[in-house]
Design goal:
There is one protein chain. This protein is 69% helix and 0% strand. The chain is an all-alpha fold and 210 residues long. The relative contact order is 0.07.
Length: 210
């Protein structure tokens, strides 16, 4: 096993992800493209613990600098079909970072992102909404295609997720689409109470100010 892989949490017999986070930050800080390539290649390792740790390292690198993992965007799309839910969740997390710097790639793969948005994994759905939001916010063309989908999600998502999802989508709201966004939230506001009601009211006010 290489010195680099030996820094993974699993190979250090650690149950926490601190070693992976430390490795990700180190690779990003040094702009170590060869090291990042080795980690990316081992997302396909036969050992599920190693490939899981490598996925973790990759999306943590993306949180530091999405450009460093963008060359592997195609791999992350492939992992959305993985039978291992943690790989799907890791891949969509990585794509939520890539969407910030390469929305064109995401737009070409909308069908796959939407498919994840309709699964039963809360983590994967949250991240897919982030992917769609960043892409929608990047251009009028993408907004015209994606924002209606985001509105439909808001109108039908479970009440317990409504406020958080509305917050996630807010960056894609602009002066041309805020009225529909506000309309849906006001309609669903009636079903909320307590802190969720207060938070959603605040989101509505922010949208009205756009």
């Amino acid at each position: 096993m290489s010195d680099l892989l030996n820094r993974l949490g699993y190979l250090q017999t650690r149950r926490d992800r601190t070693p992976n986070l430390d490795l990700a930050r180190d690779l990003a800080a040094r702009n170590d493209k060869a090291g990042i390539r080795e980690i990316a290649e081992n997302m396909w390792n036969d050992n599920k613990n190693i490939h899981g740790d490598c996925m973790n390292v990759m999306y943590e690198i993306g949180r530091v600098d999405p450009n460093l993992i963008t060359p592997y965007a195609g791999d992350f799309i492939k992992f959305l079909k993985s039978k291992h839910h943690h790989m799907v969740e890791g891949a969509i997390t990585a794509l939520s970072e890539i969407a910030k710097v390469n929305p064109e790639f995401i737009f070409k793969n909308l069908a796959e992102i939407k498919r994840i948005a309709e699964t039963d994994s809360d983590v994967a759905v949250d991240k897919s909404i982030s992917v769609l939001t960043h892409t929608s916010a990047s251009s009028e063309e993408y907004s015209a295609s994606i924002f209606p989908y985001l509105l439909q999600h808001l109108s039908s998502c479970p009440r317990k997720h409504l406020t958080e999802r509305a917050e996630k989508i807010l960056p894609a709201v602009n002066e041309t689409n805020n009225s529909e966004f506000i309309k849906i939230l006001k309609k669903r506001l009636e079903s909320l109470s307590g802190s969720d009601f207060t938070r959603l009211k605040k989101i509505i006010r922010m949208a009205e100010a756009i």
